[in-house]
Amino acid sequence: MARKKIGLIGAGNIGGELANQIVEKQLGDVVLVDIPEKEGVAKGKALDIMQNSALIGKDASCIGTSNWQDVAGADVIIVTAGIPRKPGQSRDDLVGVNVGIIRTVADNAKKYCPNAFAIIVANPLDAMVFEFHRRSGFDKSKVCGMAGMLDSARFQYFLADAANVSVKDVRTMVLGGHGDDMVPISSMCTINAVPASELVASDKMAAIIQRVRGGGGEIVKLMGTSAYYAPASAAIQMAESFLFDQKRLMPCAAYLTGQYGYKDMFIGVPIIIGASGVEKVIEVPLTVDETAALKKSAEAVMTVVDIVKKTP
Ligand code: APR
């Protein structure tokens, strides 16, 4: 069976980490794409990763390019093309620059790999997924955004740390937009099926929720740029679920057609990802407070989407 082809659009911090992990896991052959001015970086990272493959004994190829023809026929694309945050910036501040980039990416994806499963990572996430979907004409089942997996992982880690338990046993869910108004669902947190409230006091939980909401910004403040290890791992879990028809239930930005009371927009909800892409949007019961928080988050997403729609 031929190896799968995975196009990584953007060869920056997340793109490089994605390429490294994909080769290490032998998920498929990687094409690392960047703009012509950064083609050397893409090629250099690809070469470094291939030399590493000799050391770790993995059979998968990785090339760097600025030519979209090299992405032709990709099974999966993961889009990180765009500028990341600098300290003090919100994700929404990136919209002016990144909307132009996502449009270029969508036009090329439509031309060169119209059957790919597209995972969008660039920010402001929910608006970028919306624009990729609108512009590329990809079916809604073949487009989703990576945010909920990352935010839930942050929640999982903070909770494991607070409860002094293995991170493996903690289950969390963060819904809504990938912004300060995201909605960590504390009513669904468990530690191996035991309600997290049994191990973590409510004031501690409230502090953790605030830290999750600012989790990306905390790292930007420390490093001067945004996170890349966890974002790459989160996107890879989504790609794996598609490539191996795992049908995992994951919080991701998906196109809504009335679920949770919203339609014609992308926002973080629990979905099943399998060989057909986004196979199902799961509607879970939310508390009154969680419903109100989701509304606030959805309104924040709509404001940015409106900016995108008005951008010529
Ligand atoms: N096509 C391909 N690559 C592009 C394009 C384009 N049209 N425009 C920009 N790029 C490239 C940049 O040249 C850069 O190498 O995207 C890369 C982005 O890499 P970084 O600046 O290192 O950013 P990164 O940390 O990887 O984050 C990328 O994901 O999480 C989000 O907020 C983050 O929007 C940001 C994106």
How would you explain this protein's 3D organization?
With 312 residues, this protein is an alpha/beta fold. The chain folds into 2 domains: 5-145, 3-Layer(aba) Sandwich (Rossmann fold); 148-310, L-2-Hydroxyisocaproate Dehydrogenase, Chain A, domain 2 (Alpha-Beta Complex). Helix content is 44%, strand content 20%. The strands form 4 sheets. A 6-stranded parallel β-sheet has the order 3-2-1-4-5-6, sandwiched between helices. Strand 12 and strand 13 form a beta hairpin. Helix 1 runs parallel beside helix 2 (39-56). The protein starts with a strand and ends with a helix. Residues 9-15, 33-35, 38, 80-85, 94, 98, 101, 104-105, 121-123, 225-226, 228, 231 line the site of adenosine-5-diphosphoribose.
Notable features of this structure?
312 residues; alpha/beta; Rossmann fold; L-2-Hydroxyisocaproate Dehydrogenase, Chain A, domain 2; 2 domains; 6-stranded parallel β-sheet; 3-stranded antiparallel β-sheet; 44% helix; binds adenosine-5-diphosphoribose
In a few lines, what is going on in this structure?
With 312 residues, this protein is α/β, with parallel strands linked by helices.
What is this structure's SSE topology?
Blueprint: E1 5-9, H1 13-25, E2 29-33, H2 39-56, E3 62-65, E4 76-79, H3 95-112, E5 117-120, H4 125-136, E6 143-145, H5 148-163, E7 170-171, E8 174-175, E9 183-184, E10 190-191, E11 194-195, H6 202-213, H7 215-223, H8 229-243, E12 248-257, E13 263-274, E14 277-281, H9 288-310
Helix pairs in contact: 1-2, 1-8, 3-4, 4-9, 5-6
The structure holds adenosine-5-diphosphoribose (APR).
